[in-house]
Amino acid sequence: MDLIKLRYFYITAKLENMSLAAKELSISQPALSKAITNLEAELDMDLFFRNGKRISLNENGRFLFKRAERIFSEVEHLERGLEERRGEGSGQLSVVTTLPYTFTSIVDLFLDQYPQVRCQQVPLSKENLQQFVENGKYDVCITTEKIDHPNVEWVPLWEEEIYLTVPRSYKEEKTGTIDLLEIENLRFIGLTNQYSFRQFTDQFCQSVGFSPIYQVEVEEATTILQLVKNGRGAAFTPETSVNIYDDKIKHLKIRNKKFQRTIGLLKHRYLYPTKISEAFVAHCHRYFKDIKRDK
Fold first, then answer.
1. Per-position DSSP letters for 198-254, written without gaps between them
2. Which of 7, 21, 62, 92 is the most exposed, having the fewest neighbouring CB atoms within 10 Å of its CB?
3. What band does 20 get if pLDDT is binned at 50, 70 and 90?
4. Cα-flanking dihedrals φ and ψ of residue 154, to 5°?
């Protein structure tokens, strides 16, 4: 099996359309169809269900597609690595994360050292995480969820405390600490309950016998502290975000019990790491080490 035929199969399987695949590969449809037929003959197995112009992967095809996806991800990483060697200090970096404040601070300082790097933040969806774990599609994942998988290594970076953030106009802000069970008539602002941080804070509240009443639920984390600043309610805030709007709000230490989460890195074990991705991982270690030192 050669890489050209495998690529023809991979693009056709991804698009599930011969015409579109032929167009993307810049070959004629008959030539593509013949190449796929030759590949099936070479492997002595069918790879697609065929129904007129429509095609879809059968079980053999799905097996081959998963492995082809990993192969071409490795080829892409290799090409990026070679490109990097031609332009020292430049390149691309893709980071899967749902920690916007943390990501912004880390990347801002990283770009001081590597101003030519093109950086992409990738949302931490189930599909993107699977692409990272299975195929190494992205460079690094910054997350608070440890994943046990042979393809990836989990590297803890920082144990951060979760605070209750209130407007400075609230009576609760005067003490500097708070017992959640003593809160009266305090409305909350938070992410909708499909987000892991909301699920994490809800589980903590349940463990101490407290049930926050959410007046506003949002899809974007950056909206929450703005609404707290405007006096619309309280919110749970991770330590890495406590300095935002500091003159308008107060972050209270929760007394009920230890309320922390771990920020860590997921690195792929088996794919070629570019110089830029290695530099970014080292930068993340320094970033959180500096936070610990200054704390």
1. HHHHHHHHHHTT---EEEEEES-THHHHHHHHTTS-BEEEEGGGTTTTTTTEEEEEE
2. 62
3. confident
4. -95, 125
